[in-house]
């Protein structure tokens, strides 16, 4: 074995879970950001956590509103995931710019991509500083799933998005 850096370690653990973090902008529109640092934290009560860089606009929105929907995007969103990761929702409507069709979630003002395999509607419980990221610990309030959708994952250290079974 030889010593490697954390970026290279992410390549060794590919594929990694890939999600869209959906939050609400002040004008009521949906902001989305791709995130792979996601984990289930507890089954009882259901809790999930995700980490984002401290300067992330999406994190700012989650801290301000206390609401988030963590989604697992379907295969049709592969290109959109990569594109959304290269721009900020602070000054860009990524949904419109990248042509992402949205759908409503019962009882929630945040919309999600229509091609979604899993949606975890959550409330922010606490934010923990972790180096150059914040860890968002959330209580899961509702869970929706669609078995007909094919999830995508991050490959090659987050350099590409593809199904778990690369074709």
From TrEMBL:
InterPro entries: Flavin_Rdtase-like_dom, Flavoredoxin, Split_barrel_FMN-bd
Keyword terms, alphabetized: Flavoprotein
Family: Belongs to the flavoredoxin family.
Domain Flavin reductase like: 12-160
Gene3D superfamilies reported for this sequence: Electron Transport, Fmn-binding Protein, Chain A
Stated name of the protein: Flavin reductase family protein
Co-factor requirement: FMN
Any one Pfam family match given in the protein's UniProt record, by short name: Flavin_Reduct
Source organism of this protein record: Caproiciproducens galactitolivorans
């Amino acid at each position: 074995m030889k010593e490697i850096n954390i970026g290279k370690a992410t390549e060794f653990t590919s594929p990694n879970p890939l999600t869209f973090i959906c939050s609400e902008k002040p004008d009521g529109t949906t902001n989305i950001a791709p995130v792979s640092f996601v984990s289930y934290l507890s089954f009882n009560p259901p809790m999930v956590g995700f980490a984002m860089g401290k300067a992330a606009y999406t994190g700012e929105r989650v801290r301000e509103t206390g609401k988030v929907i963590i989604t697992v995007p379907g295969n049709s969103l592969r290109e959109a995931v990569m594109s959304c990761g290269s721009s900020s929702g602070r000054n860009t409507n990524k949904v419109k710019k990248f042509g992402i069709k949205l759908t409503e979630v019962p009882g929630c003002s945040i919309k999600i991509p229509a091609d979604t395999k899993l949606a975890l509607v959550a409330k922010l419980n606490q934010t923990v500083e972790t180096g150059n990221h914040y860890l968002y610990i959330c209580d899961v309030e509702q869970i929706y799933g669609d078995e007909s959708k094919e999830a995508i994952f991050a490959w090659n250290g987050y350099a590409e998005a593809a199904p778990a079974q690369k074709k």
